[in-house]
Amino acid sequence: MNSKAIGGFINFELKLFLRNFITVFFLLVFPTMMLLIFGGIYGNAPSELFGGVGAINMFVPAYSGIVIAVTGLMNIPISLCEYREKGIFKRYKATPTRPGYLIVALLIINTCMTIIGMAILIIVGKIVFNIEITGNFPQCFLVFMISVFAIFAIGFFVGAIAPNMKASNSIAYLLYFPMLFLSGATMPYEIFPKGLQNVAKILPMTYSVKAMKSVWNGGTLADNASSLIILLAIGLVFWIASIKAFKWDT
């Protein structure tokens, strides 16, 4: 792999990413706004609704779902379709530079920006509400990355099968909003009626949010083994399907 070429593509992808106001806003600003608004309303006093845990200590790990969904379900599939529709992949295939480097750079930048988005959320939570991770931080990070692996796989699959940007955008929205509102990433899963909770179990993001909240507040990987296995299985299936379905040209 040509590291110099990868570096150039990474620089290119970073500039494109930062120019996309909507993605930057919903990744870096929107989750923090949610935390400040609802954190100010509910505070962080122990709550029976959350099993004796403060609301903010539930909101911060839950909002990881917002962060991951923005890059994984919105930015990645739309970017892939844009490159295919505009013939960028096709042009690179006619040069000594492999078009696959562009995909690697796209995944690297989106992963790094997702981590930055979560870091900003944690920093603001610490400064404003003095939150603490009562669980094991390396385990929290591992759960976060497993969630990234699964959700990015779904987004990449959408980008692989969507015939154009318009279709990709439509599919992305159809996936993004149900996951955002029904998984517990925005509204607490605990307040949902039983029927809606059963519907939420269909969504991969539900398992991500559930595991993040648990490990953040003292749970272990073993406690969340079923959720993590589901996420890993989803990620593996969709990455394999994406590779098989992906087309360089329209």
Short recap of the structure:
This protein has 250 residues and is mainly alpha-helical. It has helices at 3-19, 21-42, 55-62, 64-85, 88-93, 100-129, 137-161, 165-182, 194-200, 204-216, 225-245, and strands at residues 46-47, 53-54. The chain has one domain (3-245).
Distance between the termini: 26 Å
Total domain count: 1
Helix percent reads over 70%
Figure out the total of helices: 11
Order the strands across the largest sheet as they lie in space.
1-2
Give the percentage of residues in beta strands: under 5%
- Rg measurement, Å: 19 Å
- Kindly name the structural category: mainly alpha
Assembly context of the chains: single chain
Number of strands: 2
Describe this structure in words.
- The protein has helices at residues 3-19, 21-42, 55-62, 64-85, 88-93, 100-129, 137-161, 165-182, 194-200, 204-216, 225-245; strands spanning 46-47, 53-54.
- The chain has 250 residues and is mostly helical.
- It has one domain.
- Helix 4 runs parallel beside helix 7 (137-161).
- The chain starts with a helix and ends in a 5-residue tail after the last helix.
Main attributes of the structure:
globular, 2 strands, 250 residues, two-stranded antiparallel ribbon, mainly alpha, 2% strand
